[in-house]
Amino acid sequence: MSLPQGQISEVDSQDGKAIAPLICWSIWKNRNQDLFEGQQWEPLVVYEKAMLAWKEFKVTCDLLEQRAPPFSSLCTQDGNGGVGFVARNRDAILVGAAMEIFKGPLSPRVIEALGFRFAFTTALRWGYSQIIVEGDALQIVQALNGSRSFVDCDTIILDYLQIAMNFSSCLFSHVKRGCNRVAHFVARKSLSGNGLMSWRGDFPQWLLTLALDDVRASGSSSMS
Question: Is 125 exposed, middle or buried (0-12, 13-18, 19+ CB in 10 A)?
Answer without folding.
Answer: exposed
